[in-house]
């Protein structure tokens, strides 16, 4: 079984991907959704709240697709950055003060409900930033599952003391492991030198074809062993890396397997209570 996820961001965020693209992130996500619909693949898309306010015309067809489950991805994506950097330096909590994180989370939930009429119950923080207040805040606001972080040996929902379930990604992520846009080999070398970055799949980045083969191998291994795969795709990354060529091979495989919305992984008793 495969849980395909995606993270989408408002264009005013001006990410490296966005600055290197000749198309908006949402227009590319819309194209990706059509690829999913053609193959009857389900996906859980985590979308920043500001996207609903600033780019509703492009967001609307994405969130109205029957193949897409909507989740929150913070409202501002941790802007202004300086505030979060200072708070992290002072308290080791990049998410910001409790009241700020609560407000940002609620604002995201509210704008999604206002635009779609849907109450979301899944969440992923931008950059997987999971602070000490995250579980309590999310659970208090009706979120059931948070998908932060990367753990390649985690294949089930993990329930914490608040009752919130955590479900990390267990297939090699795309953005951090693909050479694309500003992430040239030289840029990556400098970045590694400065931050010594690594996740559960190591520190290396690959060209898109190599990465795609790694993804397919991992998906097939999990399927053979009856394990849940939780994967992340950024449509804009797929576009910048090779114009969606490699990801279509991945989708061709995924369409032969069972896909599931993240929210449908909840135990029956939790769904009933909701």
UniProtKB/TrEMBL annotation:
<protein>
    <submittedName>
        <fullName>Polysaccharide deacetylase family protein</fullName>
    </submittedName>
</protein>
<feature type="domain" description="NodB homology">
    <location>
        <begin position="31"/>
        <end position="144"/>
    </location>
</feature>
<dbReference type="InterPro" id="IPR011330">
    <property type="entry name" value="Glyco_hydro/deAcase_b/a-brl"/>
</dbReference>
<dbReference type="GO" id="GO:0005975">
    <property type="term" value="P:carbohydrate metabolic process"/>
</dbReference>
<dbReference type="GO" id="GO:0016810">
    <property type="term" value="F:hydrolase activity, acting on carbon-nitrogen (but not peptide) bonds"/>
</dbReference>
<dbReference type="InterPro" id="IPR002509">
    <property type="entry name" value="NODB_dom"/>
</dbReference>
<dbReference type="Pfam" id="PF01522">
    <property type="entry name" value="Polysacc_deac_1"/>
</dbReference>
């Amino acid at each position: 079984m495969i849980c395909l996820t995606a993270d989408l961001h408002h264009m005013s965020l001006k990410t490296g991907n966005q600055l290197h693209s000749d198309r908006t992130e949402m227009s590319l996500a819309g194209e990706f959704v059509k690829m999913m619909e053609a193959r009857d693949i389900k996906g859980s898309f985590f979308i920043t709240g500001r996207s609903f306010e600033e780019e509703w015309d492009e967001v609307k067809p994405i969130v109205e697709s029957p193949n897409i489950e909507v989740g929150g991805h913070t409202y501002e994506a941790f802007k202004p950055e300086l505030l979060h950097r200072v708070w992290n330096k002072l308290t080791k909590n990049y998410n910001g003060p409790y009241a700020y994180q609560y407000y940002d989370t609620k604002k995201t939930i509210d704008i999604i409900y206002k635009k779609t009429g849907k109450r979301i119950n899944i969440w992923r923080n931008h950059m997987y930033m999971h602070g000490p207040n995250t579980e309590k805040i999310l659970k208090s606001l009706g979120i059931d599952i948070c998908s932060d972080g990367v753990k390649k040996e985690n294949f089930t929902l993990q329930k914490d003391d608040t009752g919130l379930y955590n479900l990390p990604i267990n297939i090699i992520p795309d953005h951090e492991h693909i050479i694309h846009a500003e992430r040239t080999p030289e840029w990556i070398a400098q970045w590694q030198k400065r931050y010594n970055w690594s996740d559960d799949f190591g520190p290396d980045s690959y060209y898109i074809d190599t990465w795609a083969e790694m993804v397919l191998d991992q998906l097939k291994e999990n399927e053979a062993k009856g394990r849940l795969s939780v994967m992340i795709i950024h449509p804009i990354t797929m576009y910048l890396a090779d114009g969606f060529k490699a990801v279509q091979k991945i989708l061709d495989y995924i369409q032969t397997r069972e896909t599931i919305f993240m929210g449908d992984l909840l135990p029956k008793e939790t769904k009933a209570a909701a």
